[in-house]
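Each lists sequence, tokenised fold; shown next:
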Amino acid sequence: MTYKKRLALFVGMDSLFVLTAIYLSYYTLHPYFHIFSYPSLLVSSITLLVAHHVFSSIYHLYQKSWRFASVGELISIAKIVTFTIITLAIVQKLALGEVYVRVLMITWMLHIILIGGSRFSYRVLRNLKHRPNTTKKRTLIIGAGSAGTMVTRQLLQNAEAELLPVAFIDDDIRKHHLDILGIPVLGAVSELKEIVEEKKIENILIAIPSLSKKELQPIFNECNKTTVKAQIMPMLEDIMVGKVAVSEFRDVSVEDLLGREPVELDISSISKRITGKTVLVTGAGGSIGSEICRQISKFSPKRLLLLGHGENSIYTIDMEMRNNKENTFEIIPVIADVQDRNRIFDVMDQFKPDVVYHAAAHKHVPLMEYNPKEAIKNNIIGTKNVAEAADTFGVNTFVLISSDKAVNPTNIMGATKRFAEMVIQNLAVRSKTKFVAVRFGNVLGSRGSVIPLFKKQIQAGGPVTVTHPDMTRYFMTIPEASRLVIQAGTLARGGEIFVLDMGEPVKIVDLAKNLITLSGYTVDEIGINFSGIRPGEKMYEELLNENEMHKEQVFPKIHVGKAVLLDMKIVLDLIDGFEDMGLDELKRYLLGYANKKYVESLVEGALV
């Protein structure tokens, strides 16, 4: 129906309702009256009709969508009717000399009933028409607040929705035993399992957008006690900007359970370092490197250099950057190996970047145990090449992506990352370039992470392989790690080792159990096998040893460490002689100088 037709329909209906209300009020008080024997009826009818339409126009009664009518629309109707009756009372006093109070009271009541009833009857009839059918999944809504109510209303009104709300649970005891939109609030989260069984629940929906990551874990633990799938509603911010619909629910993810609350970045300081500048990211095709590129793109650099050895991974991130219409800066893919010193120097000379994020590295602990010389070439010599090129061509800031495994390393990968830190620490002493390292632990979903491995094992029907029941690791999401790396670069003065706050360590076996449950299985169905600790692995990871620890944060979730500065001769001797060393000799050298137990007896260091 067009707006003009709709307007004509409502004006005609309301005119009929207004005249009916005034006529019935007279008839109620004087059942045997004759219309023409009451001149006041004619005056009152005309006044009431004109006043109603005037106030309806003022309060936009004819622009409202009655499909979504609620208390706000009812209040508008009450105001229109009340002001209309007041206007009629004034006219009666002026024109007729008296106010017919009883007539006005009955007219006011009938007026509201007829106008309001005509509007709200549409919603009632529509709800009856779309009455839920029995083929929908019986759904329990966790959270009886405004978000839960909004979701429930959408599900009840949407005939195409697959979910049927049958009950709420909420920890607010004031809501218990109440009905919201006809749906009962049956109890608290602690009663979830019993309610699921009693109400034959087939789906659980968590509808608390304000829920923190920490608060989600106990709720999910209660959901885990059932065999019912749990979903979570989108963030209100995403709904408001139209990114997703209210009814677009998603499964709870490992990131939801292990991630932390996002930290607010210092946008101003990051913009000063990146906006309008040339930025080089090595290892740009990797998990961390590619996410750093995505985060950097938000700050409009002048030029972004995507450097990597693998052409496929660089092609992928290059296409992603170019396909983003918001990226108006120059994007240059650079195929280069950080071990090729001449090539790296040529790149630095040609593009003269202002900021370098060095993410290129070998990171797989077990693989590097079998290939220590490759670890040295890539992690130590590669870092030395990129860092010295940055120093030579006047790069302002150089950020090395390091690892928690560089602390008291028991494996080749960790030891080579500690040697890489030594390289930039020594350069920081004499260079105008600000050299810093950023240490953090495992990132969820990165290449080599246990998450993709566990998912493949679950898809294959299990079992999931965990090295040891007490094995723990720190975890953070790739976007969070990348944002904090960029923020740490703005804090650089030269020589620091920044450490990202990884939160609480997580048992790998608990991670495996959560992932199995999230995949729709039980632990008994998939199974968990313990394979034993692999070569070079630690049971527990560290981010700083006791000699390096600064407990206070220099920025939310960022600490700065006091790292021992070692003689660069140790690094140079390794580079000169590692090709001639045997495997055992090489491991002793690397671990001996990288581990604190040997450092103190070998070198008299200074604190940075």
User: Anything to note?
Assistant: The two ends are 75 Å apart (CA to CA).
